[in-house]
Amino acid sequence: MNGSRRTLVAAAALTAALSTLVLTESAYAAKPVSSGKGASTEQKGGGDDTGIYAAARIQYSGAVTKDGSTGNVTSSDVNWTPPPCWYAPYLGAKDFKKKMSKNIEDQLNTPGMGGSAGSALGELKRHYEDEYGWTDTPGYKDYNVEKDGEGMFWAGVENPNEPDPLKRTSCNDLPFWVDNGEAPPPQYEEAISPEILAALAYQHMQLPDTEVTLAPEANTKVNLPTWAWLDKAVFSEVQATAAINAPGFNIQATTTAKPVSLKLEPGTEDAETYPASGECAINADGSIGEPYAKGKADRTPPCGIKYLRSSGNGTFKLRATITWDIAWTGTGGAGGDLPNGTFGKDQAITVQEIQAVNR
Q1: How confident is the model at residue 222 (pLDDT cuts 50, 70, 90)?
Q2: Residue 98 dihedral angles phi and psi, to the nearest 5°
Q3: Spatial separation of the C-alpha atoms in residues 101 and 296, rounded to whole Å
Q4: Which residues pair with 336 in a beta bridge?
Q5: d(Cα 76, Cα 231) in Å, to the nearest integer?
Q6: Spatial CA neighbour of 210 closest among 286, 270, 140
Q7: Three-state SS for 97?
Q8: Which of 109, 196, 297, 310 has its CA 20 to 30 A from that of 170?
Q9: Burial environment of residue 356 by CB neighbours within 10 A (0 to 12, 13 to 18, 19 or more)
Q10: First vs last C-alpha separation in the chain
Q11: What was the pLDDT predicted at 55?
């Protein structure tokens, strides 16, 4: 059976027989999760009223969102996106046979079922029952029941945070068998891996909502330098971990974000930043900028801003954006870099004219 025929079987059969089998990641379990250390939660494969659930579970811990939503990190690489779907362990042979054979028989017995859809369902049945396969994908005898407990069938999992339905449902190949302790066949490039887990941890990462300290704090004067800084105590690296544990298959990845710089955007063109680029580098001790203290009024701040006109009856929106260097490590010594992440916050600044006193 060639690839084009397999695609036809998959397109017809998946629509008819696998619509309830292809997994969709559910919402997080009802466990408290925050950016604090030790927090954890789980995502798991879908199930239905039969009580059959996928064995694949992705557990998130560390600095992650508490409800399964996308975190607050924005990738600096506009071309980088988290995986829209992946393949993961689904069911053992006996449970898979129970689920799949019922779906196929129900569809075959549907009045009016025929034509290409009926033919595809027939081939699907032969694929799992009578060893009907093709070049890179062998068929199975009686759903591999003789090997129950020695491996699992893997199936597609949709990323619920992927907005494009075509991308989200693109892992639509037929479920395939993987022996315990073995890697999935190489043609399944989207098979869950430490690198995919690292990207998912990145997607769910929640960076601390750090507010830049200013002096003067919220009200400043025209042409008066405003100092900006972040203490090391509130400005440290964060980690998010994603792990999957199934019979014979256990992998994990930890994504680490380290702060590297702070960018100040005054909210008006009538302002100057220190340094001129507005990029304040991280200091050797892990802090950014320098706290203001008495006696520094005549000095230029290493990180700060100077407004050249009044904000009138309103305010300027000072935006402070932190850039984070992001890398990951995972099972088997795997690891690498991910695109830098950014997270910004607006602060309202009132700028007043300096009042002169005539005597």
Answers
A1: very high
A2: -60, -45
A3: 78
A4: 328
A5: 24
A6: 286
A7: helix
A8: 109
A9: exposed
A10: 98
A11: 57
Among 350, 323, 351, CA closest to 264: 323
How do beta strands 226-230 and 304-307 pair? antiparallel
Cβ count near 285 (within 10 Å): 7
Query: In sequence order, which residues have a C-beta less than 8 Å from that of residue 48 and are 6 or more positions away?
Result: 20
Cβ 56 vs Cβ 89: under 8 Å: yes
Contact of 73 with 341, CB cutoff 8 Å: yes
Q: Rounded mean pLDDT of 38-57?
A: 45
Pairwise pLDDT comparison (14 vs 317), residue with the higher score: 317
Measured between alpha carbons, how far is 33 from 20 in angstroms, rounded to an integer? 29
Measured CA to CA, the distance from residue 350 to residue 185 in angstroms comes to 61
Helices 93-108, 3-17: crossing angle, 10 deg rounding: 80
The whole-angstrom separation of Cα 75 and Cα 324 is: 10
How many angstroms separate the CA atoms of 267 and 278, rounded?
12
Please list the alpha-helical segments (H only) found in the chain: 3-17, 93-108, 115-129, 165-168, 194-204
Q: Return d(Cα 278, Cα 263) in angstroms, integer.
A: 5
pLDDT for residue 324 is more than 90:
yes
Q: What is the CA radius of gyration of the chain?
A: 28
Given CA atoms 32, 242, 175, 140 in this order, what sign does their dihedral have?
A: negative
204 and 70 in contact (C-beta within 8 Å)? yes
For residue 233, give both structure tokens.
Answer: 């105590």
Residue 331's Cα: distance from chain center in Å?
A: 18
Report which DSSP code applies to 305: E
Q: How confident is the model at residue 23 (pLDDT cuts 50, 70, 90)?
A: low
Is residue 91 predicted with pLDDT exceeding 60?
yes
Distance CA 26, CA 265 (A): 39
Nearest CA to 176 out of 161, 186, 166 is that of 186
Its pTM stands at: 0.83
Say what the pLDDT of residue 6 is.
Answer: 52
pLDDT given at position 32? 24
